[in-house]
Amino acid sequence: MGCAGSRDKGDESSKKIRKPKAWKHSEAITRAQLTQMREEFWDTAPHYGGRKEIWDALRAAADADLTLAQAIVDSAGVIVQNPDLTLCYDERGARYELPKYVLSEPTNLIRES
Predict the structure, then answer these.
(1) Which of 33, 39, 56, 70 has the smallest CB count inside 10 Å?
(2) Exposure string (b/e) for 31-46, b if CB count within 10 Å is 16 or more?
(3) C-alpha span between 58 and 69 (Å, rounded)
């Protein structure tokens, strides 16, 4: 037996994800620069450790709306430590850190016309 509130903490992988809080890049950047930063991160992410299929699932979740992203991380068995997906683990305990720039746009993004 335990207290009633303790049972909700048992399954960390079911933590609801949310969009990251607003953030600002060190200097204003264009969408093209942001896209390049994202591509460079995703191209090198598997070299940081962890499993490629988890990195692929996290990339798909980062590009999806919240409902689909939740389904992706749940089906991949990703354990969400931070609800904004900046820190996750797989079932084997490997750590996956995502920078905010792959999850959302900065407040100082230059809108090209």
Answers:
(1) 39
(2) eeebeeebeebbeebe
(3) 8
* Global pTM exceeds 0.70: yes
For residue 29, the tally of other CB atoms under 10 A from its CB is: 18
* Cα–Cα distance, 17 to 30 (Å, whole number): 27
- CB distance 72 to 64 below 8 Å: yes
Angle between helices 66-76 and 52-63 (to 10 degrees): 170
CB 37 within 8 A of CB 44: no
3 has a pLDDT exceeding 50: no
23-110, CATH topology level = Bacteriocin As-48; Chain A (1.20.225)
Does residue 111 surpass a pLDDT of 90? Answer: no
- Compute CA distances 89 → 17, 36, 39, 51, 67, whole Å: 14, 25, 22, 10, 20
